[in-house]
Amino acid sequence: MKILAVDDEPIALDGLVTSIKEAAPDAEVNGFGNVSDALFNAMITRPEIAFLDINLRADSGIDLAKRLKEIVPQINIVFTTGHRQYMEQAFEMHVSGYVVKPVTADKIRAELNNLREPVATARENRVKVQTFGEFEVFVDGTPVQFGYLKTKEILAFLVECKGSMCTNGRLIDVLWDDDDAQSHRSYFSNLMSDLSKTLKEYDCEDIIIRRRGQISVDTTKIDCDYYRWLEGDANARAAFSGEYMSQYSWGEPTLSTLLYEDSKNLL
Question: What is the DSSP string of 92-136?
Answer without folding.
Answer: TTT-SEEEESSP-HHHHHHHHTT-SS--PPP---SEEEE-BSS-E
